[in-house]
Amino acid sequence: IIGAQHAAFYCYDLNRDSLVLWKHSFKEELLKHIPLAEERFREIRTVMEEGQPLIITDENRFRRWRDLLCEKKPSDHPASQSAILSPLSLGTHKVGLLALFGKAGDDCFDEKNDLPPVEQLSAIIGTAVRNFQLYSEVQDKAKTDGLTSLLNHSAFYEALVRETHQAFETK
Hints:
Helix content: 25-40%
Largest sheet: 6 strands, antiparallel
Number of strands: 6
Mean pLDDT: 86
Order of helices and strands: EEEHEHEEHH
Radius of gyration: 20 Å
Strand content: 15-25%
Number of helices: 4
Shape: elongated
Distance between the termini: 48 Å
């Protein structure tokens, strides 16, 4: 993505007010859960609340963020010591965070050339993720009774047929 050496995608968990790692391209494991209430994640919380991306070009600040998100010190240090943290949202609904680290070559990410495509990509990803969330929510509601939260007749019958077929296949 725009020459980033590494990328990470976090989904927003409204119930915990945290970010949960979904995918990343680092060799090392990244922090799987980012509780936004913790002081060490203040800048990420600000990015999520304000809905504005953050460009990190200061080398010391970059290292601090990289070391904060990586569970172990990374072995594959990007040549460029810069990053972009971009919120993913649809309107006022928080969806997640796209984190890009280390621009290819010796260049740093810059506001003029790199930020516009990242913002467009973030808007597209945010819309797609939110649509998926809404689709899943509608699917769940279509299969359950609103009063009892039990499977409705159609969903119960589908589950019965699926389980019956699976039982015969495992004989």
